Amino acid sequence: MTKSELMAKMANKQPHLLQKDVELAVNSVIELLTSTLASGERIEIRGFGGFSVNQRQARVGRNPKTGDAVQVPSRYMLHFKPGLDLREKVNASRTVLKTIKDV
């Protein structure tokens, strides 16, 4: 789902809101999430999951083409851990899809 598709679905579910209001709300939430993670803080949305920033240490990697050793610098990575409700819903929907495909 793209950002524009998300805004369209939200506008359809809330017809009393103007498209501009939905766009402002989505953009505000995304900006708040981005700035919070950029400052190193953790975000937890109950039932959905948690976002955190982890640092990967510098390491020696390999160039797959030549096999030469390459120094890979340390960097920060975004980590998402889904919440229990999200995991259960995804697993339940995948089980139903698999059952339908098997029939």
Automatic annotation (TrEMBL):
Is the keyword Cell division assigned to this protein?
Answer: no
Q: Which PROSITE patterns match?
A: HISTONE_LIKE
Give the UniProt keywords, A-Z: DNA recombination, DNA-binding, Transcription, Transcription regulation, Translation regulation
The residues that cross the membrane are none
InterPro entries referenced in this protein's UniProt entry, alphabetically: Hist_DNA-bd, Histone-like_DNA-bd_CS, IHF-like_DNA-bd_dom_sf, IHF_beta
The subunit structure is: Heterodimer of an alpha and a beta chain.
- Please state which protein family the record places this protein in: Belongs to the bacterial histone-like protein family.
User: What's this protein's function?
Assistant: This protein is one of the two subunits of integration host factor, a specific DNA-binding protein that functions in genetic recombination as well as in transcriptional and translational control.
Protein name, entry field: Integration host factor subunit beta
Look up and give the organism this protein is from.
Methylomonas defluvii
